[in-house]
Automatic annotation (TrEMBL):
Belongs to the endonuclease V family. This is Endonuclease V. The keyword Cytoplasm applies. InterPro entries: Endonuclease-V. Its cofactor is Mg(2+).
């Protein structure tokens, strides 16, 4: 049976996103989320996919779990995977989520005591064309609180890299400072966060699932030693290292 043409696939995926979008919870659901110092939070996860340069099919799917608040690695899982879904902008989750979900399910089966209480995703959540990015998708399917943290601004729903946006970035004085990313409708879809005193370039934080916007920003800042929150940074570093070790001839 041949794959459906892209138009059919896009319609199918749009319908699936709309269905799952109804299940997103945009508020705090866990006791630790409302604590000033996140008391009760012990494990934070990070996920990422890294590709061999020039190959957009074979990737290393990475899950790490760090202790909180010390941010020491408790668990890591590196798995080579073959992506089967095509890349279509706005639908990245359909390519990547199955493998990230498998990693979480593997951990839950084998070492459930290490399952993260929240997962940081290298990508967007509600800050998305249809308010359902990778962090939302993974959150709804896993049932875990998720936070989307993107390194680059997705220009979407009336948010642009304009002069005003640049001046707002320049006004972020210290780590922890942020400003809202409001859609043309006025709804705040995410926040630009200066995550570290050492980095003036912000990250873009948005709700994935089972967490509020303010808590997501506060938690992201508390997990940053550098610009990128440590769970995502460790997932990225370890997946790249895995590729370097197992595919030394390839330039990653």
């Amino acid at each position: 049976m041949s794959a459906p043409p892209p138009e059919d696939l896009v319609q199918q995926w749009e319908s699936e996103q709309a269905r799952l979008r109804q299940q997103v919870v945009e508020e705090d659901t866990e006791d630790w989320q409302t604590s000033p110092d996140f008391s009760g939070l012990e494990r934070v996860g990070g996920v990422d996919l890294s590709f061999i340069k020039g190959d957009d099919i074979n990737a290393c799917a990475q899950l790490v779990v760090l202790s909180y608040p010390d941010l020491e690695v408790l668990y890591e899982d590196s798995q080579m995977v073959t992506l089967t879904a095509p890349y279509i902008p706005g639908f990245l989750a359909f390519r990547e989520t199955p493998f990230l979900l498998e990693a979480l399910q593997r951990l839950e089966r084998n070492q459930p005591n290490l399952l993260p209480q929240v997962v940081f995703v290298d990508g967007n959540g509600l800050f998305h064309y249809r308010e359902f990015g990778l962090a939302c998708h993974l959150g709804v399917l896993s049932g875990l609180p998720c936070v989307g943290v993107a390194k680059n601004l997705l220009q979407v729903q009336g948010v642009y890299k304009s002069e005003e946006h640049q001046s707002q970035i320049a006004a972020l004085q210290k780590g922890g400072d942020s400003f809202p990313l409001a859609a043309a409708s006025g709804k705040v879809l995410g926040k630009a966060l200066r995550s570290s005193d050492k980095s003036s370039k912000p990250v873009y934080v948005s709700v994935g699932h089972k967490i509020s916007m303010d808590t997501a920003v506060r938690l992201t800042h508390s997990c940053c030693r550098y610009r990128v929150p440590e769970p995502i940074r460790q997932a990225d570093c370890r997946s790249r290292e895995y590729l370097r070790t197992h595919f030394p001839a390839a330039d990653t």
